[in-house]
Amino acid sequence: MHFQLTEDQLALRAGVRALLEGRFGAGALRAAMARGGLDRALWRELGAAGFFALRLPEADGGVGLGLPEAVLAFEEAGRVLLPGPLVATHLAAGTVPGAATGETVVTAAYGGLVEWLREADVVRGQTRAPSAGAVTGGTVLPPVRGAVPLTSVDPSTPLHRVPVRVPPDPVVVLLTAAEQLGGAARTCELAVQHARAREQFGQPIGAFQAVKHLCAELLVRVETARAAVYAAAVTADPLDIAAARLLADEAAVRGARDCLQVHGGMGFTWESDVHLYLKRAWVRTQRAGSVTESEEKLAGNLLSESS
Fold it and tell me: Residues of the chain whose pLDDT is less than 50?
C-alpha cells in the first residue's frame, strides 16, 4: 500500500494552487470584502476548471475523480480563504443544473445555518416563501422562509439562521475538514515566516524557545490533521471522517491562535491576515452540525465497543 500522493494528485494540487494564486492572490480577499457579494466570474472560472465537477462521472460531463482528489482541491481553497458556498455547490454538481459549471450558486442549511444566502440561486434543505422577491446574483428570488440574518464573526462569510436543516452529510464534514486543514497549514507558514523575519533583541524571534515551541506545535497539529483527513478521504468511513473533523478543527482554530501569539499585537490588526484565518475557522466549526456531532459519533462508537 502506498501512502504518498500519486503524480496525478500532485499535479492536481499544483494546478488548483496555481489557479487560485493567479485568480485569488494576495489582496483579493480584502478586495472581495470591500466589494461585497460573490464574484460570479470567479465562480464560473472554478466551474470551467472542474472544481465543482471533480467527482462527477465523465459520462455526465464531470472530471471523474474521487473523494481524495476533492479533498486536495478543498485544502487549497482553505489555504487562500476562498469565499463562497464551495462545499454545497460541489455536492450539487450533477443534481442542480448549472452547479457543475459554476453558473448556479448553491448553498445549504447545514446545522440550521446558511452561508451566502442572498447570493445563492438554490438553497438546499429550504423552500423560498412566495413573497416579494429580492435580486440575488442577477435573478429575482423570494426570500427563504424563516431566515434570520446573523452578524458573522467572519466578514467574508455572511450567515443566516433558518428553522430547517439539512441532515449532516459525511462528505460535507470531510470537505469542511479539508478547508480547515488548508487554513491551518497556511497559518503555520505565516507563523514560521514571521518568526524568521521579525527581530527582537538583535536576533529573530524564532531563536527564542517559547516561539520555537509554538511553531513546532503548529506543525504537529497540521501534520496530524493531514494524516487523518487524507485517510478519511480514502476510507470514507463516517468514524474516520468524524475524527478528521475534530483534528482539523483543532489545527485550524488553535493554529490561528498560536499564529496570532507569534505575531504579537500586530496579528490582531486589520492589515494582518492572521485574524481572518481564525474567524473563518470559527465559522467552519459550526458547519454540518458543528464538532459536537462528531464528538458524539465517536463517543457512541466507543460505548458500543466497550459494552
Answer: 127-142
